[in-house]
Design brief:
Layout (H helix, E strand, L loop, with lengths): L1 H10 L3 H17 L3 H17 L3 H18 L2 H17 L3 H17 L3 H19 L17
Helix pairs in contact: 1-2, 2-3, 3-4, 3-5, 4-5, 5-6, 5-7, 6-7
Length: 150
């Protein structure tokens, strides 16, 4: 519930409140040993940090989420998080690492046959390849800007 509230706060541009709700949700899931939802909330935090262009914290959150998701065998969400990590890396200048993570994401996404996520992943990869081909271009994030109201 707090994770969902954090997501809504993020959409409304209430980033500090969103982070607080995500942190509270994270503590609850850790106490109850709900590893899957702990991974989901860590991914949400990664997206929040990426929106703020805090690349290091975003990467740390995504890596922590990946560790948990691999531990419990959630291949579907692992693919998603690998794609998000990849675009954060590429946008922050670590293009090769980003492309490598996106390649891993593609394998898992094909394995679970998620055509929608596969399409999104191709868009992320195209953005990363554009950054590789145009290093002087402004590195604009493919992360959704949840600080702007729809």
């Amino acid at each position: 519930m707090l994770g969902n509230l954090g997501y809504l706060n993020q959409i409304e541009g209430q980033m500090d409140t969103a982070e607080s709700n995500f942190q509270d949700a994270l503590q609850i899931h850790r106490k109850t040993k709900n590893r899957r939802f702990e991974g989901l909330v860590l991914s949400n935090l990664g997206s929040l940090y990426a929106t703020r262009e805090n690349w290091e914290e975003a990467q740390e959150s995504f890596h922590s989420a990946l560790h948990l998701l691999r531990e419990i065998g959630d291949v579907h969400f692992e693919g998603y998080v690998l794609g998000e990590l990849g675009i954060v890396e590429a946008t922050s200048g670590q293009i090769e690492a980003g492309l490598a993570h996106m390649a891993q994401a593609e394998v898992l996404t094909r394995q679970v046959n998620d055509q929608v996520e596969l399409g999104l992943l191709f868009c992320k990869r195209a953005h990363a390849e554009h950054l590789a081909d145009h290093p002087d271009a402004a590195a604009r994030s493919m992360m959704p800007d949840r600080s702007q109201k729809p």
